[in-house]
Structure formats: C-alpha cells, structure tokens
Write a structure and sequence with these properties.
Blueprint (H helix, E strand, L loop, with lengths): L6 H10 L26 E5 L4 E5 L1 H6 L10 E3 L5 E2 L7 H7 L5 E7 L4 E8 L2 E4 L5 H9 L11 E6 L9 E6 H14 L6 H18 L3
Antiparallel strand pairs: 1-2, 1-3, 4-9, 5-6, 5-8, 6-7, 8-9
Helix pairs in contact: 3-4, 5-6
Length: 214
C-alpha cells in the first residue's frame, strides 16, 4: 500500500488553511500541504481562486498534475520552459500594450476567464489594467501561445529598451514569474529599477534561456 499523502486528507487541510496570497513561498523548509521536509528545488501548487502559491513535496505535487485533480481548484505548476525565437511580436506591439517597464508576464486566469498582464516594480507585481486587444492580435499570429496552460504557465516578455531587436519571449512556469518579481522588488531603485535590478534581470533571463527548449 502506498505511504504517500491521501488526496482527500490533503484537500481537507487546504480548505482549512487561511486564504493568504503571498507572491511566492520561501524555498525549502516544509510542504504546505503535508508538512514533510522539502528541498530547495521543489514543486508548487496554485490555488486558482486565491492565486496563492504553495510549496509541495513530490507526493502532494503529483496529486494535482492530472486534469480535474483537486476539483479544478488546485493545479500543479508545470516545469517546462519554451523559447519563442521566431515569434511574430513586433516592438510596436509591445509599445501598444503600454507596459511602463521592459518586462511583463501574461497568463490566463481561469477564474476571471481572461488574460492578465503583470509587470514588476518596487511594490511587487502590478497588474496592467489597460485593454489587451494587442494580445489578441499576438495570439492570432502565434497559435503556439494557445498551448499555455491557464493559471500555471505564463508568457514572459522582455523588450529591448532601444527597440533595436524584437522582444525576448518565453513560456515559463508561473512561479518563476513571481520569483522574478520578488528579486526585483528587493533591488529596485528609481523609476527604471537601476543598475542592480537590471543585473538581476539579466541573470534571471540567462537562467531561463539555459532551461528553455525551442
């Protein structure tokens, strides 16, 4: 008989837990679902309704990887990274989104049934409340974006400040986006983030690039 966590017991503990929504849990320590120790490199689960990210041991993570697991309320964050080197995404389209900084991420929020756009800054993740008609144009020109899994994967974009090159685009796990937000929040200085934040951004995108397949 398996000694792994029982799905019904895990769901019961989650429902009793307070509906907090921190950007991303601290690495290491224990699984938020069953309290067993986890390594620094561990999986995450999204509470779709509250947008809460929870640390998960391997057993609890696997409980929520299937379609319909957790009644659709909880979803395991995948681990795939994809580089969109040939994406049809012009600098002019980025400008039309009117994101005030050079990086943003987009994901489908299934509870709201729409695409949400966020960008990092000194206050953390800030949602762009502007119209996203340009996003619809980008998806229409790039059907691969329709494969992004709602709630748990994101389209991460970094624009060239000089507009001399097209935006750098990746599909990434949603927890990596919040990790980036936390890193930049600690180092952000002034309007554009400053040198330290730019160095953090360079290092982050280098790690994403190393993991990404094409």
């Amino acid at each position: 008989m398996s000694s792994g966590p029982d799905a019904l017991a895990v769901l019961s503990r989650i429902r009793r837990a307070p509906a907090e929504a921190p950007p991303v849990p601290a690495p290491g320590e224990v699984c938020d679902l069953c309290n067993v120790a986890v390594d620094d490199e561990h999986g995450h689960i999204v509470d779709v309704e509250s947008r809460r990210l929870m640390c998960a041991c391997r057993g609890c993570y696997l409980l929520f990887t299937g379609d319909g697991a957790g009644g659709g309320h909880f979803r395991a964050v995948p681990t795939r990274f994809i580089a969109f080197d040939e994406l049809s995404f012009a600098s002019s389209q980025w400008d039309a989104l009117q994101i005030p900084v050079s990086v943003a991420f987009f994901f489908v929020n299934s509870s709201l049934d729409r695409v949400c756009a966020f960008y990092p800054g000194p206050a953390g993740a800030t949602e762009s409340l502007l119209s996203l008609e340009t996003w619809a144009e980008i998806v229409s020109a790039n059907p691969r974006l329709e494969t992004i899994e709602p709630d748990v994967e994101a389209f991460l974009v970094r624009a060239d400040p000089r507009r001399s090159a097209p935006p750098e685009c990746y599909l990434v796990p949603i927890d990596w986006c919040y990790q980036l937000v936390g890193q930049l929040r600690r180092s952000w200085r002034g309007f554009d983030g400053g040198r330290e934040a730019r160095d953090e951004l360079d290092g982050f995108f280098a790690r994403v690039k190393d993991r990404a397949v094409r």
